[in-house]
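Minutes, project check-in
Item: structure for the 273-residue chain
Input as provided by the requester:
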Amino acid sequence: MLIDSHCHLDSYENLDQILANAHNAGVESILAIGIGDGPDTMHLALEIAQTHPQVWASAGIHPQEAARATKEALARLAQLANDPKCIAVGEIGLDYYHADNPDIAIQQLAFSAQMYLATQARKPILIHCRTSELATPKAKEKFGEADAWENLLRLIDEHWTPHHLGGIMHCFSGTVDQAKRSLNAGFHLSFAGNLTYPKSQAIRDAAAMAPADRILVETDAPFLAPIPLRGQRNEPAHITHTANALAALRGISLEELATVTTTNFKNLFPSTR
């Protein structure tokens, strides 16, 4: 049985069918990501988790919504994070990809504030980092030479690593060096459908390098459908394609990969055992 460590379940109107498909595909559990369309709806994933035993939730303010990380929104996040079915804070982090994203200082302040809330709740964090080198031309003009990964890892080193609470580098899309630095900071690496894309060799190199006890799989559904479903609306049942690719990359069976990643998830989140 597999665990989808990152899925936006509140995006589906046909939720019961989506969950049935996942169960039939051998998905034991799902971590529903509670960012909603912004802070006003970050509670929706937790509402799903509270009525579905196989679902757990996170809550957080995405970096694209960092300007809305008001005192009131952060207080609401702190309340959600203390719920037993909310097992993580996120996805949070930095995103210098789009020109209309908040300024760097606003993103970094919101990220740091949420790391602080996670330390108070004693919950791991789920990291979103969208690389600067792939940014749109307007974004490159806005964000200049700033490097999202470098800024992210510096803030984590300052505000998170000393607390030894761990977390997940969601949809890991960095280099081997960035993977090693993330691992040294106490994070698990979670691999999504883009692992299967032809141009994703750097991600595959990181996935092959990562220690067996620090890897996870996810869909990031409804986004990032893996090959052979690329371009379609993704769902948790499709995690088997990514899991098969990761297993082949590491020279193990799908069954072994499922056992390893499920064990890793439950070790990171003991309340899900």
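Outcome recorded: The chain has one domain: 2-272.
No further action items on this chain.
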